[in-house]
């Protein structure tokens, strides 16, 4: 038989450590995703729309006998696995294998991306205020290192505008040597982030932030293409517009031979058309000279003092943060397109190694580039071969192929990037914005606008903060209390919902001692979880007011985590806790 052995009442705040069954943690199930094969055939725009659809899950329904949300069943006889306890950051899919059949496609994809990277890298060097060769070396080093050791082979890294904007004031005040020191220190910071697996916190970025990030970068990419035609006369402007439209039409409507990326065919066709007609149009060579040498070891010429560290450390931290945010968001987007799940900490480490290498090779560093990454994936680049090819092609342009690359029309590259913008921008967000919660719609619009007018790090931070505030406000409305009298004549308040800083005031009003005539009160937390020190303080304040009126308050059905929090705040509270009885099997 079973014998009930009640534990002696806890005095003050002492809690016994008796084991008890904790309530199961329920995690919202992810929306059903497309199969890897289906994702591999999708466009970047489809991936964005798929991500947006995940922000609108249908109301959860569960029949009797089916697993709870947040579990995965491997077979009908298998035990459900709780996804909330899985190490998401450690589990990752293998990269697609390279075969002889798709090797040519991977190489051609890398060449296509390299052509698009050169003018953008040159433009970002002007933003940072450094020599063009510094940006081209950064594109080659970042691309090569991350392609070799990065988690997601489809991601293309290089000299990026997000980091160039952060580095520009440092170069203006102290010179380019301080830039190299800051980039190396930023790489070391990213290595530490990867070592401590901080990349997993990118999961805290909500889907509206992701959609706003993609839409904002689409606008930024489009704006950058139009800015390349600034200052052109009317006839030259019409020529550039016509060549841009010709390139876009080639990409969209002309089907190239199997294994050949359509953007590469379009760029080559546009270049041949310009040469055949003898048109005088703006080319890569008109932007800047590409010729140079291979990167070599360069120790930053800065004083090794604490004053130097004080100058470069804030910039390095900003570069590391901006670079990792853009990289990890790009990694998530590419994962959706190719149907894989890659480790964030590995990507952080690869970015750190690449930036350290840039700092000691006289390059400006950078991060993942969403435009080039999507272009790579759209052109068929899914393996490390495409990334390595892109980096080696840039080095080839710098050393002995400058004459070729400098003849490529800017209009052809602008048309390629504008086609990419049409694919990655989530046009359905305009119609869906009325169907999602108002807070999510505001976050989406905010992140889009801030990305366009400031930078990605500020945009994502603002979006996460606003989403968190919206969630806290909604959660604060979920707390309630049901009042009843138990068999011992005590008034029991069954608390439901989360108790935290947002709901502490409501909790105090629900259990106000002035509204209770019974001198014996029980607060039942079977349906409530105590989250923070503000909640603990609210418990103590409410209990103190009850004691002032001669009422005894007992807490019961606290979960182990809530009890642990009360122990941790033991000096702040003085409440009585009623432990659940322990049942033991009596001897015959």
UniProtKB/TrEMBL annotation:
GO terms for cellular component: membrane. The chain crosses the membrane at residues 122-148, 155-172, 178-198, 210-230, 236-254, 309-329, 349-371, 383-404, 410-430, 442-473. Pfam families: STAS (PF01740), Sulfate_transp (PF00916). Keywords: Membrane, Transmembrane, Transmembrane helix. It is found in: Membrane. SUPFAM superfamilies: SpoIIaa-like. It comes from the Eukaryota. Gene3D superfamilies: STAS domain. It is a multi-pass membrane protein. InterPro entries: Membrane-Transporter-like (IPR052706), SLC26A/SulP_dom (IPR011547), STAS_dom (IPR002645), STAS_dom_sf (IPR036513). Residues 27-46 are annotated as: Disordered. Residues 489-588 form the STAS domain. This is Sulfate permease family.
């Amino acid at each position: 038989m079973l014998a009930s052995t009640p534990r002696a009442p806890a005095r003050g705040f002492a809690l016994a450590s008796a084991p008890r069954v904790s309530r199961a943690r329920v995690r919202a199930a992810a929306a059903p995703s497309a199969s890897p094969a289906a994702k591999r055939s999708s466009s970047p725009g489809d991936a964005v729309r798929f991500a947006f659809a995940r922000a609108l899950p249908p109301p959860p329904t569960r029949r009797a006998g089916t697993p709870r949300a947040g579990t995965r069943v491997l077979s009908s006889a298998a035990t459900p696995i709780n996804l909330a306890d899985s190490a998401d950051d450690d589990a990752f899919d293998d990269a697609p294998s390279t075969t002889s059949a798709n090797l040519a496609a991977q190489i051609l994809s890398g060449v296509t991306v390299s052509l698009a990277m050169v003018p953008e890298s040159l433009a970002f060097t002007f933003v940072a205020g450094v020599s063009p060769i510094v940006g081209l070396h950064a594109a080659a080093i970042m691309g090569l290192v991350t392609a070799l050791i990065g988690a997601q082979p489809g991601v293309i890294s290089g000299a990026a505008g997000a980091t160039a904007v952060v580095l520009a004031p440092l170069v203006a005040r102290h010179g380019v040597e301080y830039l190299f020191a800051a980039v190396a220190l930023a790489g070391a910071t990213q290595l530490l982030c990867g070592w401590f697996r901080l990349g997993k916190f990118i999961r805290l970025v909500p889907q509206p932030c992701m959609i706003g990030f993609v839409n904002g970068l689409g606008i930024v990419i489009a704006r950058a293409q139009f800015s390349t035609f600034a200052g052109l006369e009317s006839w030259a402007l019409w020529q550039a517009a016509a060549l841009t439209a010709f390139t876009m039409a080639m990409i969209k409507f002309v089907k190239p031979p199997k294994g050949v990326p359509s953007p590469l065919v379009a760029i080559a066709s546009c270049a041949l058309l310009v040469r055949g007609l003898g048109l005088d149009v703006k080319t890569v060579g008109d932007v800047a000279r590409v010729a140079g040498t291979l990167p070599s070891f360069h120790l930053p010429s800065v004083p090794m003092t604490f004053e130097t560290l004080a100058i470069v450390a804030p910039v390095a931290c900003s570069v590391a943060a901006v670079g990792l945010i853009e990289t990890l968001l790009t990694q998530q987007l590419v994962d959706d397109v190719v149907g894989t799940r890659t480790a964030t900490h590995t990507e952080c480490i690869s970015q750190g190694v690449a930036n350290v290498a840039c700092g000691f090779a006289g390059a400006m560093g950078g991060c993942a580039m969403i435009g080039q990454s999507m272009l790579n994936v759209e052109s068929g680049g899914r393996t490390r071969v495409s990334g390595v090819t892109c980096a080696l092609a840039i080095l080839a342009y710098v050393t002995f192929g400058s004459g070729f690359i400098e003849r490529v029309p800017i209009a052809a590259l602008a048309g390629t990037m504008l086609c990419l913008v049409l694919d990655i921008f989530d046009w359905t967000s305009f119609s869906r914005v009325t169907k999602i919660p108002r807070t999510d719609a505001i976050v989406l619009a905010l992140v889009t606008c801030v990305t366009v007018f400031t930078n990605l790090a500020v945009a994502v931070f603002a979006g996460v903060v606003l989403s968190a505030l919206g969630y806290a406000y909604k959660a604060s409305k979920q707390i309630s209390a049901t009042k009843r009298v138990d068999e011992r004549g005590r008034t029991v308040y069954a608390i439901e919902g989360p108790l935290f800083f947002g709901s502490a005031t409501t909790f105090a009003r629900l259990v106000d001692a002035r509204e209770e005539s019974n001198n014996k009160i029980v607060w039942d937390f079977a349906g409530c979880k105590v989250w923070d020190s503000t909640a603990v303080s609210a418990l103590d304040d409410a209990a103190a007011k009850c004691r002032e009126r001669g009422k005894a308050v007992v807490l019961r059905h606290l979960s182990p985590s809530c009890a642990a929090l009360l122990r941790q705040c033991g000096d702040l509270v003085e409440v009585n806790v009623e432990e659940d009885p322990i049942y033991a099997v009596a001897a015959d």
